[in-house]
Design a protein that fits this description.
Keywords: Acyltransferase, Transferase. By secondary structure, this protein is an alpha+beta fold. It has two domains: 108 residues, Aminopeptidase, CATH 3.40.630.30; 170 residues, Gcn5-related N-acetyltransferase (GNAT) (Aminopeptidase). It has nine helices and 13 strands.
Length: 325
C-alpha cells in the first residue's frame, strides 16, 4: 500500500529481516536483535503446532525502511483470540504520522481476525506512546522492570555461605547434568523443573503448557549460553530450581536472565538466591560486566532477591490491553 504522502506500507519477506532487526534495535536499544535471532524467532512462531498467527509489515520512505509492525500470538500465553501488537518507528521518522498509519493497518488486520484481546505496550518514559495506545482504548494491565546488575565492583566474597543449598541438592550447569544423566534424561529433568517453576511467573494471562518439543527448541536459540543454565538438582536427578543466563544480541559484555524459579515444594529454602549467585560467578568468569533481568512489578519475592543482590531498575515497560478473553 502506498499512502498519499508516498509512504509504502507492505507485508514483509525474509529479505526484510535485517532491516527489521535494525529498526527494532534502534527503537529499543536496551533489547537488541540480530538478523539471526529475529529469523529464529520468526521461524519458531511460523512452525509452531498451535498454528500461531504472525503478520509483519515494513514502511519505506523514499525507498528506505523507517518503521515496522507486527501482529502475533505467543506460545507461552496462547489463546486463539488473543494477539500481541508491536509498532516501531525510527526516532528520526517519528511525529510524521507513520505510527498512526501503521496502527490503522494493524487495527484493520486485527478486526479481520476477530481479535477479542490485544496486548501492546511502551516504556513509562515514553508518555507519547502510552497516550497513543490510550487513545485507541488500551488500558494498563501490568508493568515489568528491566533490572540491571553492574558487575564491575561486585564482591562475591561478601556472599560467602549464601550459595549453600539443602542437603541432598547440588548446583549443576546443564552441560554437567547432561554428562551425568545423558542428553535425554537431562532434557526431561530440566523440562519438568522449568515447566513447573514458570507456571507462577506473573503475566497478564494464563500460562500455556510448555511441551517438551517447545522446550527442546530453546536449545536452537542463537543466544544459548549452556554454561549459564544453572540448576538445583537432587541426588535422585530431579531439577527443583532454575536460574538461566542467555547471551545478549550484539553485546558481549552483557548476559540476560531467562527464568529464575523454584518448584513449589522447594520454595523458601534459599535455592533462588544460591542459583543467582552461581550465575553471577559464571558471568564474572566470562568477563561479563552486566546482567539484565526482567521482572513484573508485582513479583515481590524475586524483586526482593534482585534488590538484595544490587540489581537496580530501569524504566518499566507498561503492558497495555484492549478487550479481554
Amino acid at each position: 500500500m502506498t499512502t498519499a504522502s508516498g509512504l509504502v506500507i507492505r507485508e514483509t519477506t525474509d529479505a526484510d529481516i535485517p532491516a527489521m532487526a535494525r529498526i527494532m534495535s534502534e527503537v529499543n536499544p536496551a533489547h537488541q536483535w540480530t538478523p539471526e535471532s529475529l529469523a529464529h524467532e520468526i521461524s519458531f512462531l511460523q512452525a509452531h503446532p498451535l498454528g500461531l498467527h504472525l503478520a509483519q509489515w515494513i514502511v519505506e520512505e523514499a525507498g528506505e525502511p523507517v518503521a515496522t509492525a507486527a501482529v502475533l500470538q505467543f506460545a507461552g500465553m496462547y489463546h486463539q483470540d488473543r494477539y500481541h501488537a508491536e509498532i516501531m518507528v525510527l526516532p528520526a521518522a517519528e511525529r510524521h504520522g507513520i505510527g498512526t498509519r501503521l496502527a490503522d493497518t494493524v487495527a484493520a488486520h486485527l478486526r479481520g481476525r476477530g481479535a477479542r484481546e490485544v496486548l501492546a505496550g511502551a516504556y513509562e518514559h515514553q508518555p507519547h506512546a502510552l497516550a497513543f495506545l490510550a487513545r485507541r482504548g488500551f488500558t494498563e494491565a501490568m508493568r515489568f522492570y528491566d533490572n540491571v546488575l553492574e558487575l564491575t565492583d561486585f564482591d562475591l566474597g561478601q556472599w560467602a555461605g549464601h550459595e549453600r543449598v539443602p542437603d541432598g541438592v547440588r548446583v549443576l550447569s546443564y552441560p554437567q547434568l547432561e554428562a551425568e544423566l545423558g542428553p535425554d534424561a537431562a532434557l526431561h529433568a530440566f523440562h519438568a523443573g522449568f515447566a513447573e517453576a514458570r507456571e507462577d511467573v506473573p503475566r497478564t494471562g494464563d500460562a500455556t503448557e510448555l511441551t517438551l518439543d517447545d522446550f527442546r527448541k530453546r536449545f536452537e536459540n542463537p543466544a544459548l549460553f549452556p554454561e549459564g543454565l544453572l540448576l538445583a538438582v537432587t541426588d535422585m536427578g530431579e531439577v527443583v530450581a532454575v536460574s538461566e543466563l542467555w547471551r545478549a544480541d550484539g553485546n558481549a559484555t552483557r548476559l540476560n536472565t531467562g527464568l529464575t524459579g523454584t518448584r513449589r515444594a522447594w520454595r523458601r529454602r534459599g535455592l533462588a538466591l544460591a542459583l543467582k549467585l552461581a550465575a553471577i560467578r559464571v558471568a564474572l568468569a566470562a568477563g561479563v560486566t552486566e546482567i539484565w533481568t526482567g521482572n513484573a512489578t508485582t513479583n515481590a519475592p524475586m524483586l526482593a532477591i534482585n534488590d538484595r543482590l544490587g540489581f537496580r531498575p530501569r524504566p518499566a515497560f507498561v503492558e497495555m490491553k484492549w478487550g479481554g478473553v
